[in-house]
Amino acid sequence: MSSNVFFGRFERFLRYRRNNAPEFKQRNATLKLLKSSILVAFSGALRIHIAFLLLQTNSSILTCIAGGLVIYSVYTLDRALGSEEDIVNRKELSGSRKEIGIAVSMLTFVIGSYVLAKEGLLALAFLPFIIGFLYSKGITIGKFTLKLKGGLGVKNFVVGLTWGAFISGLAGSACNSMLPVVLVFTFFGVKLFINSTIYDFKDIKGDTLAGIKTLPVTLGARNTRNFLFGLHLLSHLILGIALINGVLGFEPLIVLYSFICGLICIQNYTVTDEEETSFQNLERTILVDGESTSIVGLRAIANAFLA
Fold first, then answer.
1. Per-residue pLDDT at 290
2. How far apart are CA 229 and CA 223, in angstroms?
3. CATH number 3.30.70 given to 24-302
4. Nearest by Cα to 228 from 264, 256, 253, 202
5. Which chain regions cross the lipid bilayer (predicted)?
């Protein structure tokens, strides 16, 4: 046996031992847990920036970053605490060290809330954190139990209401009129409601197992898809009218890109018959969670050409 063959086999043996060792699997799952909310947080920070643009107020980088940290902490805490449906929906996080996820979540929340507190927005930092905990675990006082998870469309409603209020509240804190803030809240609330429902289509197995009555599980794919199309068209019609009448900042690229991207996502990612390929998963992630990144990038390019 030549030395090359021997060392080649020895290298494969070490790689096999490393990839299948329990401590490596745990470390890998923990890393995935910590990375799983980064894109959502980054996207959320850019959504806050977009809200500033629509409200025609000065965008604060610190506010956007702090908002992103709070978003990261809430989603990481939810995944660290885990739930019954996650056994099926998030198999890749199985075996992760939850205490590390909780510790990182608390640290990012403290940093984000400290920045927001200096701007007089501490209450908004606690809003998604408290609602997120009530959704994931709930609280029990004697015979009374409050848990937001389980009802028909409750998860989607909670996501839309919470993050819509969070984003519009941070960006609209210096706004003199409530009407633009309400319109931005409606826009982002509906968009995040739709996005969370789109993700429910790939989580049907786990949600059914856990008895969670999501819209795709209860209404079926076709009815849910039609409902999302209706919401999407209505929210962008309202936003377009507001832009034309000067109630919001004139940002036609934001509205147009959001409208087209939303139509593509609802059409392509509300199908349950086929197994999603890795490319489709990446494409959906870019179009859904990466939408705000694309909007901000395209707007910067367009402004550069116009200038």
1. 81
2. 10
3. no
4. 264
5. 60-78, 99-116, 122-140, 152-171, 177-194, 227-248
- The residues spanned by each domain of the chain are 24-302
- Cα 233–chain centre separation: 21
Q: State how far the Cα of 223 lies from the Cα of 211, in Å rounded to an integer.
A: 20
Token duo for residue 48: 């806050």
- Cα dihedral 293, 295, 298, 302 in deg (nearest 10): -140
Reported confidence tier of residue 95, pLDDT bands at 50, 70, 90: low
**Which sign, positive or negative, has the C-alpha torsion 66, 74, 173, 228?**
positive
Q: How far is CA 206 from the centre of its chain?
A: 18
- How does DSSP assign 223-251, residue by residue? HHHHHHHHHHHHHHHHHHHHHHTTSS---
pLDDT band at residue 22, thresholds of 50, 70 and 90? low
Q: Which three-class secondary structure state does DSSP give residue 140? A: strand
Q: b/e string for 49-72 if b means 16 or more Cβ within 10 A?
A: bbbbbbbebeebeebbbbbbbbbb
Q: Within 13 Å, how many C-alpha atoms sit on residue 200's CB side?
A: 30
Residue 39 has pLDDT above 50, yes or no: yes
Position of tokens 């299948």?
20
Tokens linked to 307: 């200038």
Provide the pLDDT confidence category of residue 42 given band limits of 50, 70 and 90.
very high
**pTM assigned to the model:** 0.82
